[in-house]
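Minutes, project check-in
Item: structure for the 263-residue chain
Input as provided by the requester:
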Amino acid sequence: MKMKFLISILTTIILLSCTTENENSLEPDTNYLPLAINNYWKYSVKTNGTSLKDSLYISNDTLISGKTYKKFKTKNLPAGFYSNSLNKNSIRKSGTTLLLSGTLALDFGVGSPINLNLNDFVIFNENASDNQQLSIISGTINQTVDVYPLVIDYILTSTEVETFPTYTSNNRVYTDVKRVKIVLNAKITTNILIGGFPYTASILSPQNVIVSNQYYAKNIGMVYTNTLINYQLNSLPGGTTLTIPSTGSQSQDEFLDVYNVSN
């Protein structure tokens, strides 16, 4: 079992969320992520020294619970955290808010794929003030690894951090840029036998395992994302071991290369 197993779980949690929204038809539509069919964004993805390419685009309209969303897809299997989050999922606008919905099927390499439902997860709000929390969600995911049942408790927050009149990324200058931060705090426990007696062991103490800073430019979309994934597992009693690396550290940058958008 390699490190990508745990990263896949944590990336999945970032999408598994449900929030409430405040509908206000008098507010103007946000245009920090233009949602026209055939809009596309191509990114250079750099992860711990490795460079890959992502191509993200809007393929079609789709109806979910009677509401119209835009379906996002990638040309190939996405390498970047941001493109992976949107791939095969749908976004709609509500006033100045962008909401993500859909279904995600992930194969963790330990059995059948697991389907996770996405329910209007707020990823952006144009009218939010600096340092305003956009949402907070908590939940639990159960997963079995090496015959051990893992209980993953998480708290997910998204925050509008700051606004830039101009912002430079990849030697390009963008205007009217907003930074949104998504933080996933998680803890993992499991049940093991010590001397023949059941014992609840802490595998991962509560810690911020994903911190993703996403920069949106007006009339363009996401122009840069930096995502840090870090964790430190605890030693388990009784000589119990898992095939998950005890530590993990990953830094990823997604730079916008080419785009074509219309509102």
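Outcome recorded: The first strand starts at residue 40 and ends at 47.
No further action items on this chain.
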